[in-house]
């Protein structure tokens, strides 16, 4: 029996973008029912699992990268360590003592608390990585999705990182319409907007789920349909962080922009373009001091580029 992982394993944790987000209802426990078309951008955090020394089944987290500093103080509650604890707890009682100790390095490249699900993507990537590093821990696909939902409403869609229609509170996933290749720009003004505050302060109005076709042949057709939809959290987020309105205006005025909208609970906004190159060309018109700007394509298409401490904690 060996307790050593020899290979370094890698995963990318891509930004989730809500192309529309309708709040369709509210559950008795306060969580909101949603209808959203979620897609994944080329922009991503990166996770690597290294062999470590220590207690069997332990996981140490190191955080690096341009947005790492903001997470260091709350490392113990990092979604990556929460994912590790949850996965370990689902294993049979004798399994954790046989698991190799691990060190996960998070290269935090996505802004935190910004509506693009970076923490959720990290948690899902950690689940994928740990299932590879700890083959002794066996979970069914159904159980994996339950664990993901326990970690957060956005985590289930991040498990596969493919475009999906989100329903329920985020855990009901259905196939997305066939999407055309398109360009995307992401802009975050640097102000964290906490998701609970946005849901709390929104007007108590509900919208029906959107009617979407089976697919869109081109960006024009997709934008025509998306323009009739909304992000129902946008007004509440703008009230908390008025700079979001400025970001939306700047994006809408960028050359080649076909649609500008906020993602998730904000503050990150996205713009759609005809191609990744068109998005990159428009970038110079959007950049402002202190703003994080990313331009490129959807995950799996061309990747983009972005502008914009290390600590150890174990579980
Ligand atoms: C807004 C979205 O980003 C859309 O994709 C997600 O619904 C948010 O997902 P998330 O950040 O993973 O959310 P969670 O960490 O599960 O929840 C944070 C808080 O947001 C509120 N929340 C979240 C999801 C949801 N469907 N209804 C809610 O009311 C709740 O107050 C909850 O306590
Ligand atoms: N690895 C992580 N990356 C980012 N945030 C994390 C992480 N682990 C824990 N968190 C906590 O989760 C909170 C939400 O982070 P995240 O970046 O996922 O927000 P978000 O982009 O608004 O997500 P969503 O779009 O799902 O609402 C942060 O304020 C932070 O306290």
TrEMBL record:
Database matches in SUPFAM superfamilies: GHMP Kinase, C-terminal domain (SSF55060), Ribosomal protein S5 domain 2-like (SSF54211)
Keywords on record: ATP-binding, Isoprene biosynthesis, Kinase, Nucleotide-binding, Transferase
Domain of life of the native organism: Bacteria
UniProt cross-references to InterPro entries, sorted A to Z: GHMP_kinase_C_dom, GHMP_kinase_C_sf, GHMP_kinase_N_dom, IspE, Ribosomal_Su5_D2-typ_SF, Ribsml_uS5_D2-typ_fold_subgr
The protein's annotated pathway: Isoprenoid biosynthesis; isopentenyl diphosphate biosynthesis via DXP pathway; isopentenyl diphosphate from 1-deoxy-D-xylulose 5-phosphate: step 3/6
Residue ranges constituting the GHMP kinase C-terminal domain according to the UniProt record: 216-287
Domain GHMP kinase N-terminal stretches: 78-159
The keyword Glycoprotein is annotated on this UniProt entry: no
Active-site residue list: 16, 154
Keyword match Signal: no
Official protein name in the record: 4-diphosphocytidyl-2-C-methyl-D-erythritol kinase
Native organism taxonomy: Bacteria, Pseudomonadati, Pseudomonadota, Alphaproteobacteria, Acetobacterales
